[in-house]
From TrEMBL:
It comes from Planctomicrobium piriforme. Belongs to the peptidase M50B family. It is a multi-pass membrane protein. The chain crosses the membrane at residues 20-40, 115-141, 591-613, 634-657. Keywords: Hydrolase, Membrane, Metalloprotease, Protease, Transmembrane, Transmembrane helix, Zinc. SMART domains: PDZ. This is Regulator of sigma E protease. It holds the Pfam family PDZ_6.
């Protein structure tokens, strides 16, 4: 009996043609597996009673020759019922009377039965490889291996990886696209060895240790963006620009491509951000290439005004340095994690300088000596040190805190710090004035949709952010993303004996502080075409992808046993069906790639040494071949029922994960 976790019963999809497409595709994977068993069984002269796709009572069946062909109503797999081999009646495999029939499965010698049992797995390996060969013959767009967002304080950031860097290998294995980075990181044990090159062409070679975030290991990088505006999607609230931003009223369309900014040509997202950073307070002219109704490119210029920060009017306390970049300006100057920056060039941080804007102070002094006064805790009295450093020319907000619990980065010197959630001061006449007081502690922030405001990517739901000791930077950055169409509700704990309470605030745009970002334009992820130049090359790429897929599955199983990988990441029938639909919605090539991956998974999982699966049968055959005798009926029956109970229990478990457990 062969199990594959596929079903469409719990999937609600508005497009019936895509659902049918998915059902046929997944059905083919099962069909090819069972076809392998069937053909070899016939070749060995075994009487095949039934060939079924799906379990349970047949909803459709017919007889051709001596075999009944059926389509079962439970689309969880399939089976080939042979005389002398029935997982529901394991006694047949040890019945001497059945074995006397020369056409029974048990009458065949061990090598023949091994060939029959392994044929399904071999067929899936072959068809999976062929699926991959087709994909690389046609060509497929994959997310490029270039780092876009580098999460502040995470292993990649600490070891010097920056936006625009290209990763070429991990642990000696070539990295062809961003999926390779994700899977090699997730499936790793201990430190990983990474090579690549920075945007300026300088190579790097480093060893770092991934950290667990949620249910998987990460090094803290995200894919780079292109210069092309996103394409339309079915998701509600997704527009070419973020609602309420400077670009929202500009003539920016889906699929537009930026080629220059105010006369300065840009070749990638990093160059674009560099230009926008220097022109943060100015209106800029985007030179755009757009396809007309005849699909012919035309060039036009679109002016987008400056994008002010959205503010509440509160200044928070300066926290300690929590992360440092290896070999950074700050590290070389003697700054250490745990230090607190007290002054910069004689100006008090928290009084003269807003701790949140400290990164801008250093960026404005790039190339010039800066005196930093630091307070360092020691076993005795705290020390006050004066350090001198020369900041690099790096954008102040080139490493924004867009992930939960991210500290604020000062890219020009390579340090990161948290803000204390205690209010230092409140700006007179600001949105928070008379609602929040100095020394109040901010407990949480809720972003609430304004009535009549355009929908954003969060839809109609409020977004709550727990601040704690480490999350004000993220909350403030979320305010920049959604604060133009949402009001804010802060939960505040007063410094006095007054009880904790909430205050409603309408954020206001700053009059002199501007975001050095894309001004609200949503860009698509940077992709690369993976396409073979010839059939032999496509075959080589397909075989390599197959080998990598098999290796990944075994590494996943190892990670589950060693607890390096959370079982929450497993997908059952519902999850696989959703994934299948997603891939099919993208296009035929991506769906064929998915079918290849499912084929390899089916092959490997079915060959695990678990009774009722092909691998379990192979264990019995190995025993028989070595001992020259069949295992007893009691052993076979007990093992089979235990295996069946395990598989059914696992099936229920992964369905539970699909329904109730987040995969993030």
């Amino acid at each position: 009996m062969d199990f594959v976790n596929v079903t469409l019963s719990a999937l609600r999809i508005p497009d019936p043609l895509t659902v049918l497409f998915v059902a046929i595709g997944l059905g083919l994977v099962i069909f090819f597996h069972e076809l392998g068993h069937f053909l070899v069984a016939k070749w060995c002269g075994v009487y095949v009673e039934r060939f079924s796709i799906g379990f349970g009572a047949p909803i459709l069946s017919w007889k051709w020759g001596e075999t009944e062909y059926a389509l079962g109503w439970l689309p969880f797999g399939g089976y080939v019922k042979m005389l002398g081999q029935d997982d529901m009646d394991p006694a047949q495999m040890t019945d001497d009377h059945v074995a006397e029939n020369p056409r029974s499965y048990t009458a065949k010698n061990v090598p023949q039965r091994m060939a029959i049992i392994s044929a399904g797995v071999i067929m899936n390996i072959i068809t999976g490889t062929l699926f991959f060969v087709l994909v690389f013959t046609w060509g497929i767009m994959k997310v490029d291996r270039v780092a876009g967002y580098v999460q502040v304080g995470m292993p990649a950031w600490r070891n010097g990886i920056r936006s625009g860097d290209t990763i070429t290998s991990i642990n000696g294995g070539a990295v062809d696209d961003f999926d390779d980075i994700t899977r090699r990181t997730t499936l790793s044990r201990g430190p990983i060895h990474i090579t690549g090159h920075h945007e300026d062409g300088q190579t790097f070679d480093m060893t770092l240790t991934p950290e667990i975030s949620g249910i998987r290991k990460i090094i803290g990088i995200g894919p780079a963006h292109s210069l092309t505006v996103i394409e339309p999607t079915d998701q509600a609230g997704i527009t070419p620009t973020v609602p309420g931003t400077a670009a929202a009223t500009a003539d920016i369309k889906f699929g537009d491509k930026i080629t220059a900014v105010s006369g300065q040509t840009v070749k990638d997202a990093q160059e674009l951000l560099s230009v926008l950073n220097k022109k943060a307070g100015d209106a800029v002219d985007f030179e755009i290439t757009r396809l007309d109704s005849d699909q012919k490119p035309k060039t036009l210029s679109v002016t987008v005004p400056a994008e002010p920060f959205v503010e509440l009017g509160v200044k928070m306390g300066m926290g300690k340095i929590v992360a440092m970049r290896k070999d950074s300006i700050a590290e070389k100057a003697g700054l250490k994690a745990g230090d607190r920056i007290a002054k910069v060039n004689g100006q008090d941080v928290g009084v003269d300088l807003d701790p949140f804007r400290l990164t801008e102070t250093f960026s404005k002094n790039a190339g010039q000596p800066v005196t930093v006064t630091v307070r360092r805790e020691t076993e005795g009295e705290p020390e006050t040190l004066e350090l001198t450093m020369v900041p690099e020319d790096r954008g102040a907000w080139s490493e924004p805190p867009i992930a939960e619990f991210s500290p604020i980065s000062i890219p020009s010197i390579g340090v990161a710090y948290h803000l204390v959630p205690t209010v230092l001061s409140v700006t007179e006449g600001s949105p928070a004035a008379e609602k929040v007081n100095p020394r109040d502690t901010i407990i949480s922030m809720k972003l609430i949709p304004e009535p009549g405001a355009p929908k954003d990517s969060l839809g109609d739901q409020p977004q709550s952010i727990l601040i704690g000791e480490k999350n004000w930077a993220y909350a403030f950055w979320m305010l920049q993303e959604y604060g133009r169409t949402r009001s804010v509700q802060l939960t505040v704990k007063p410094a006095t004996a007054d009880p904790e309470h909430t205050v409603d605030i309408t954020p206001a745009p700053s009059k002199d502080w501007y975001l050095p970002t894309t001004r609200g334009i949503r860009f698509s992820v940077l992709e690369t075409l993976r396409k073979a130049d010839s059939i032999p090359q496509a075959a080589a790429m397909g075989v390599r992808y197959t080998i990598n897929s098999v290796e990944d599955i075994y590494l996943t199983l190892r990670g589950l046993f060693t607890r390096d990988i959370s079982p929450k990441g497993l997908s059952g029938p519902i999850g696989i069906a959703k994934l299948a639909y997603t891939f099919a919605s993208v296009g035929l090539t991506h769906f064929v790639l998915f079918l290849g991956i499912i084929s390899i998974n089916l092959a490997v999982i079915n060959f695990l040494p678990i009774p009722v699966l092909d691998g379990g049968h192979m264990v019995f055959l190995l025993w028989e071949g070595l001992s020259r005798k069949k295992p007893s009926e009691a052993v076979v029956a007990t093992a089979t029922y235990c295996g069946l109970a395990f598989v059914l229990g696992l099936f229920v478990f992964v369905i539970y994960l699909d329904i109730f457990v987040s995969k993030i």
